[in-house]
Description:
The structure holds two protein chains of two kinds.
Chain A: E1 3-5, E2 10-14, E3 19-21, E4 24-26, E5 34-38, E6 45-49, E7 60-61, E8 72-74, E9 83-89, E10 99-100, E11 104-109
Parallel strand pairs in A: 2-11
Antiparallel strand pairs in A: 1-4, 3-8, 5-6, 5-9, 7-8, 9-10, 9-11
Chain B: E1 4-7, E2 10-13, E3 19-25, E4 32-38, E5 44-51, E6 57-58, E7 67-73, E8 76-81, E9 90-98, E10 104-107, E11 111-115
Parallel strand pairs in B: 2-11
Antiparallel strand pairs in B: 1-3, 3-8, 4-5, 4-9, 5-6, 7-8, 9-10, 9-11
Amino acid sequence: xxxxxxxxxxxxxxxxxxxxxxxxYSYSGSPELFWYVQYSRQRLQLLxxxxxxxxxxxxxxxxxxxxxxxxxxxxxxxxxDSAMYYCATPPKDYGQNFVFGPGTRLSxxx
Amino acid sequence: xxxxxQHPSWVICKSGTSVKIECRSLDFQATTMFWYRQxxxxxxxxxxxxxxxxxATYEQGVEKDKFLINHASLTLSTLTVxxxxxxxxxxxxxxxxxxGSSYEQYFGPGTRLTxx
Lengths: 110, 116
């Protein structure tokens, strides 16, 4: 069964510091992984997915199959990055569901 | 991008009454919609998966007779909380799967339910 873990419930960094939000997964077959973000009082939204290898709002994430990780990174955190971040894997077959990690609350301090 | 709406955004009801929450995909068809519950400062908890035209699949521990889900069309799914109790107070979020977009999932803004 697919599983996603995010070991940190809360991560605090100072503005301008690098940030890394950890995500580890267990997945049979070729993994697909997403990062979602939820800003305060806003809806959950897709931040990025590994398949597109894009950079959104300065965030990147690389799939490391050897370490089964998909950590989210940003070299210089901004205060507006403060939010709840969820790592997730999509359904593999029709009728299955997304599997979300427990989430990490990122707090960027001034 | 695709939009999912929820109605109402906030509802207060008395214990013992029923509340219906609607989830609509506005500009795409969603054969699958998900209903989540989110407690303050906690992760999303999947309650059920709703497939158009068939019965919803409930997660373990979720009472199907209490949380009635109907996905009657490709753009609408409803969640009815029956005989609500204060412990049902929570934030309920729906999402819709756009299968035309590589499993991209779009989330509604959520509905805050307060049962008094």
